[in-house]
Amino acid sequence: MTRILVVEDDTDVALALRILFTRAGYEVVPAADGREALRRLFADGPDLMVLDVGLPELDGWQVLERTRDMTDLPVLLLTARGDEGDRVRGLRAGADDYLPKPFGNEELLARVEALLRRASPARWAGAAHDEALRLVPERRSAVWRGEEVRLSDIEYRLLQVLVRNRGRVVTTDQLLDQVWDDPQGIGRERVKFAVLRVRRKLQQAAGTLESDPLEAVRGLGYRYRGDQGV
């Protein structure tokens, strides 16, 4: 059965969502605050998250950021705020869809169904991406060929975006948007130098300059190509 993590601190709204999704044939995993949401995310392995922005403990923006550090699980944001700025912020932060309150039940179900149809099984950043690399979100590090590589927040997010798109070119503009939240592309050289830093750290960990899973694609961007077995 498809499992939906519902993160909502308003007990009346949470109950209504639970009834709505249960009647639609979904299994509901409830969480009343941000910290509980992250615990249930690990423990229950949901297929989709419905996330309220206004939460105690950790707010919805923080939950979304930490979720995106770990997985590409589909996330639908619910919020009382309906202005364009919040919608843009949510989508840029990694939300897959956005629905302001009050909302209609049929529209909510339709959006959930659409997200589930488009979604592949969620991938987790802590899982092995090949025999050589594993990301460790709680430590902001990577294990490359058996050696832990400590990364800055920017370096970790850069590697995570490239790994999530394994085999596909991620353009410089996309990296600026997703890693630096800079969609206008100001300071494009920062991408080049961040990639060079990550490469150097991976090479040092492996003890060889030829150990490099990142590929520069001239004029376009960068690609994670995986372990080449060097």
Automatic annotation (TrEMBL):
Claim: Lipid biosynthesis is one of the keywords in the record: no
Statement: the UniProt record of this protein carries the keyword rRNA-binding: no
OmpR/PhoB-type domain mapped to chain residues: 124-226
DNA-binding region: 124-226
Superkingdom per UniProt: Bacteria
Domain Response regulatory: residue ranges: 3-116
PROSITE patterns referenced in this protein's UniProt entry, alphabetically: OMPR_PHOB, RESPONSE_REGULATORY
Modified residues (4-aspartylphosphate): 52
Record keywords: DNA-binding, Phosphoprotein, Transcription, Transcription regulation, Two-component regulatory system
CDD domains: REC_OmpR, trans_reg_C
One Pfam family matching this protein: Response_reg
Official protein name in the record: Transcriptional regulatory protein KdpE
